[in-house]
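lol so apparently i was supposed to do this last week
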Amino acid sequence: MNLNYPIVKIKDKSSKAFRLSKNPWVYSGAIHELDSSLEDSQLVYLEDSKGRIGIAYLDKNGRIPLRFLLFTEADEKFDTNSIISRLNDAWNLRSSFLDFSFTNSFRFINSEGDYLPGLTVDIYHELAIFSISSNYVKNWIRIVQEFLATKGIQYFAIKNENSGFSFLTEKHISEIRFKENGLEFQFSIQDSQKTGFYLDQRDNRKKIETYASERSILNTFSFTGAFGIYGKRGKAKHIHNIDSSNKAIEASKIIQEINFPNDNTFQHSVADVFSFLREMEVSKYDLIVLDPPAFAKSKKSLPQAARAYKDLNRIAFQKIAKNSIIFTFSCSGFMDKNLFRQIIFAASQEAGRKVQILEELGHSFDHPVDIFHPEGDYLKGMVLKIE
Ligand code: SAH
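anyway here it is w/ S-adenosyl-L-homocysteine bound
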C-alpha cells in the first residue's frame, strides 16, 4: 500500500526516545530535515536512519511542530475511522464511570491524554465546547460533531484564541445549566473564562464535603463558588467566596441561589486574595481553599511563581485557626509535584506551623494523562491539617 504521506526525518539521537517512550511531542530540535516547501497541516511519516517511527501531523508554525498520532513501523494510515475509534474509547471511559443523570458535565477529549493531541472537548449537558491548539485539528471538528450528535449533544461552540466562544452551527444558546455530582451549575457562554467551568476539580470539590462539617470556609480564587457549594452540602456553617472578578462573584451568587435559596451562611466578595488574606483577622476561618490561577506561565517565570505560591500558602498558614484544614492547589504545568511540596514545606516553616499532609490530589479521571506524556499532568493539590 502506498499512502504517499511525505517523510520528515528525525535526528537519530532524538528518535531513540520516541521509539522507547512514545512521547507524542516533537520539538524542532529533534527534526533532522524538514522540506520547507512541505504544505502545512498535513499528515507525515516520521523516520530516522533505521526507518519509520510513526505518523504525525505537521504544524509548521506551532510551538510543537510535529505531534505523533500513531507509533508504527508498518504502512498504516490514520483516517476518519482511527479518529472515531479514539472518540469511542474516550466516550466509553466517561460513560462507564459517570452517572449522567447525576453528573452531565465532563471533559470528553483531553488532548494527548485521549490520543487526540491538540483537541480538548468539554461537555456541559447539551453543549460541547471545543478548544484547539493546532491548525491541523480543525479537520477533526466535523467528525467529532457528528459523533456527539449521536449522543444527544445539541450545541457546539469553539473557544476563540483570545477570549470568548463562537458557535459552530445555527443553534445558539446564551446560558447553559448542568449537573455535577447532583449539584446545579451554570454559566453564560459569552462571559465565561477558559472553557466555562473548571471541570478538572470535580473530585476535589466533592472531597471538601468530607471535611466541611461545622467549619467556616474561606474559598479563595472562588470563580463561581463551586467549592463553597459542595462545602455547604458538607454542612459548613459559613462560606466566604473571594474572587477578583466581579462577573465570577455575580455568577456565584446566582449558583448559590439555585442550590441553596435564601441561605444566609454564604458571603461573596470581590477582592484581591493576597490583600484580603493580609488584612484578615487571625483564626476567623478553619477551612481555606487556595486554588489560584497558574502563576507559572513559562519555565522562565517559575522562580517568581514559586515565591507567589509560597507567600500565598504562608499567609494562609499564619492566619488560619488551630486544628484547621487547607485545600491547596497549583495548576501550573511547569511546576512538578516535588517542587510544589517543597514550596508548601517552606511556607509551613516560615509560618511556624505544624502541617500534616492528609491527602494528595490531582485531576478527575476524565482528564487522563498518557503515561508517556507527563506534560499533561498539570494539576496538583494537597489536603493539609494545620495543628
Ligand atoms: N476554584 C475555582 C477555579 C479558580 S480559577 C473553581 O473550582 O471553579 C482562578 C480564579 O482566580 C479566577 O476566577 C480569577 O478571576 C481569580 N483570580 C485571579 N487572580 C486573583 C487575585 N489576585 N485575587 C482574587 N481572585 C483572583
